[in-house]
Amino acid sequence: MPSTICVSCRGERSAALVRPKTSEPYCKICFFQAFEREIHETIVKEQLFKPGETIAIAASGGKDSTVLAYVLKLLNERHSYGLNLVLLSIDEGITGYRDDSLETVKRNQQQYDLPLIILTYKELYGWSMDEIVKAVGRKNNCTFCGVFRRQALDRGAMKLSVNKIATGHNADDIAETILMNILRGDIARLKRCTSIITGDESDDNEVSVIPRCKPLKYAYEKEIVLYAFYKRLDYFSTECIYSPNAYRGNIRTYIKDLERLRPSSIIDIIHSGEQLIVKPTTKLPVQRICERCSYCSSMPICKACLLIEGLNKGIPKLGIGKTERYRKEMQQKQDQCCNDQSLCHCMKEKLTVTEQN
Amino acid sequence: MCQVNEEDDEIFQALKSTINKTPTNRKCMSCGEDACVIVRIADPMCRKCFEEFFIHKFRSTLSKSNIFGRGEHVLIAYSGGPSSTALLHLIAEGLSVNARRRLQFQAHVAFIDESSLYPDAIDMREKVIDRITNQLHYPLHIVSIDDNLDNDNTLKELLFQQTKSLTAREELIRRRKLKLLFDIAIREKCTKLITGDNCTKLAAQILSDMAQGKGAHVAIECNLTDTTNDLVTIVRPFREIMSKEIAMYNRLNSIESLQNIDISTMSGIQSSIFKLSETLVNDLQRQFPSTVSTIFRTSDKLEKNLKSERCDLCCYPLDLDEDQSLLSDQDRIKLIHQLFDTRSNSNDPVHVCYACRRLLRDVQPNLQSNQE
């Protein structure tokens, strides 16, 4: 029978939970302190923020972003980081999932007293996720959502003139991403995915990308759930209805099994990922600018423009799978998707923002 | 799906839907004869072409980098399993007098006898002797896994009573075997050690190593020639050959492998990290046939770190700083000196890499002590 004394305060309070990261018994107070302290140490050690910066917290209403918003606000006050915090939310247009979680974000805005901005796929790209899934089917839709969301966050952040974006990626997410990149053979992403802050290196990038950081990089998903539960934080906990067939599911199961065998596996995978060095002779994509929308891209036309083109022309597989043929066709054809009536995001003036303040 | 190189999987998915239920006579892709086996994604081959393909792959891997010097002494690690049996067979053919571009090294064979750990595997020693000495006539070096230890029960006790998890047991045995193979090679003045690690096993090993914190060594463990040890270079000629191809080759040539029991035989698929990884790789490979080769290709693009200090437990380069890798627990230091690093002075400081440090946490060197 394991001891029921909290290992941190050694008996001042009786243990209420077993900490997933270390498998040791903790009382609630000490767990909160340990959890918050570790995030603070990550922020300080990796020098994520500078005083006076405006940080956009990517808020989805889920547990990770809710806990991130709560903890960042708390640490900002407790340790005087001197940051201005803003909530930035993206509405992909998934009925029964996103509309509910957005209500949660609006409540968070009230509860944490932070300004909130919401952007929708429909106004940015002309397509909502429900419409995309109808056109593409159930298998490759996560690609669309992920590519669009990344650009949406950047566009929202640029509009608001923030200095950095903070996302709620936790240790489990990063471990999954590392393994996924190995299984996909994506050596370029493998190199970047363990960085806690990306887009900060100002080498010869012509396009300034807004840096994004992951303060929760070393926090276990289970601990985030426990923290949110004990603190009675308001979050939305249903899985996206389109995700069950995703490839990532296989790896997620594997990691959950690993965690059951050896709880430190998740941090061990992150350590492994950080040790990987890519051969300098490997061919890596070069960053340039999309010819259509001037966003950063590794190809002449960025992935988002490619995907939209495919959707608008009725060939939804355009950005997925063999692209050589289609890309050649496209470069020869006239620009057919962007006319005055369309809401394609190439039309920059059409960017409307729903401000809630 | 979700692969950077998706063409292979698309071909596979397309084929799956067009093939009807009745058996079809596929023709060999090279010569048009009736096919007997499907290689890689969807390439049918007849027996002759398959064997040529297989043997050619093996020989070209070996001769591509001019690895072996004339008359060099080479140690072949034999475990009795299908890969090492196929390896022996191919090497025997390559060394035979009428072989095309005959191999020019001197072969020795090493076998590590683990029968003290598994009571069911008693006959292995005799079978191996029969096969190697009587049939192939190569010098055979058999070493027991508890070679040079105080008494025969030290290792057994360590593994079954002091080690908490199957993962840790597997890893300890793996490191111990490698150490013993190096010792034999050095003793017999062999400068190369050939192992039968195939692509499928290496892919599972990569994932398993990532899960244990051994990411720094993934780049080294998949190399054709591995120069971690200064005196003995490891060579892996089967690194691009799948286990299915080896099984087919063995079957076509009626090559029988010996039953090989190891520590995780008959334990469930969730019993150790390696087993979990192996299951994942096999399951994914069934749905996406390019999985194993993609994992392998990814690891091939990685570079090893150039630290010169080695871990005293696994002999690979350290991935931690000096102060973090230093081991302070006296019992564990003694353990390492006894089992893994018998040559150095017992007063030298002991350094271990991240994965070995994690491994040691699962081992209680002293039964009485309760601390980690």
From TrEMBL, chain A:
Every copy of the Cytoplasmic tRNA 2-thiolation protein 1 C-terminal domain together lies at: 290-318
User: Is-annotated flag, keyword Transmembrane?
Assistant: no
Q: Which GO terms of the molecular function aspect are on file?
A: ATP binding; nucleotidyltransferase activity; tRNA binding
UniProt pathway annotation: tRNA modification; 5-methoxycarbonylmethyl-2-thiouridine-tRNA biosynthesis
Q: Name one GO cellular component term.
A: cytosolic tRNA wobble base thiouridylase complex
Per the record, the domain of life is Eukaryota
Q: Which cell locations does it reside in?
A: Cytoplasm
Domain tRNA(Ile)-lysidine/2-thiocytidine synthase N-terminal residue range list:
55-252
One Pfam family in the UniProt entry: ATP_bind_3
Instruction: Cite the entry's keywords alphabetically.
Output: ATP-binding, Cytoplasm, Nucleotide-binding, RNA-binding, Transferase, tRNA processing, tRNA-binding
Enzyme Commission no: 2.7.7.-
Please list the GO biological process terms of this entry.
protein urmylation; tRNA wobble position uridine thiolation
Sites where the protein binds ATP: A58, A59, S60, D64, I90, G168, D173
Q: Where are the transmembrane segments?
A: none
Q: What does this protein do?
A: Plays a central role in 2-thiolation of mcm(5)S(2)U at tRNA wobble positions of tRNA(Lys), tRNA(Glu) and tRNA(Gln). Directly binds tRNAs and probably acts by catalyzing adenylation of tRNAs, an intermediate required for 2-thiolation. It is unclear whether it acts as a sulfurtransferase that transfers sulfur from thiocarboxylated URM1 onto the uridine of tRNAs at wobble position.
What NCBIfam families does its record include? TIGR00269 family protein (TIGR00269)
Task: Report the HAMAP family cross-referenced here.
Answer: CTU1 (MF_03053)
Protein name as it appears in the record: Cytoplasmic tRNA 2-thiolation protein 1
- Organism, as annotated: Rotaria sordida
TrEMBL record, chain B:
Q: Its annotated pathway?
A: tRNA modification; 5-methoxycarbonylmethyl-2-thiouridine-tRNA biosynthesis
User: Which GO BP terms apply?
Assistant: protein urmylation; tRNA wobble position uridine thiolation
Q: Where in the cell is it found?
A: Cytoplasm
Q: Which GO terms describe its molecular function?
A: nucleotidyltransferase activity; sulfurtransferase activity; tRNA binding
Entry-linked SUPFAM superfamilies? Adenine nucleotide alpha hydrolases-like (SSF52402)
Q: Where is the signal peptide?
A: none
Describe the location of the tRNA(Ile)-lysidine/2-thiocytidine synthase N-terminal domain by residue ranges: 73-256
Q: Which UniProt keywords apply?
A: Cytoplasm, tRNA processing
By its UniProt entry, which Gene3D superfamilies does this protein fall under? HUPs (3.40.50.620)
GO CC annotations, alphabetized: cytosol
Family the entry assigns: Belongs to the CTU2/NCS2 family.
Q: What does this protein do?
A: Plays a central role in 2-thiolation of mcm(5)S(2)U at tRNA wobble positions of tRNA(Lys), tRNA(Glu) and tRNA(Gln). May act by forming a heterodimer with NCS6/CTU1 that ligates sulfur from thiocarboxylated URM1 onto the uridine of tRNAs at wobble position.
HAMAP family in UniProt: CTU2
Q: What is the official name of this protein in its record?
A: Cytoplasmic tRNA 2-thiolation protein 2
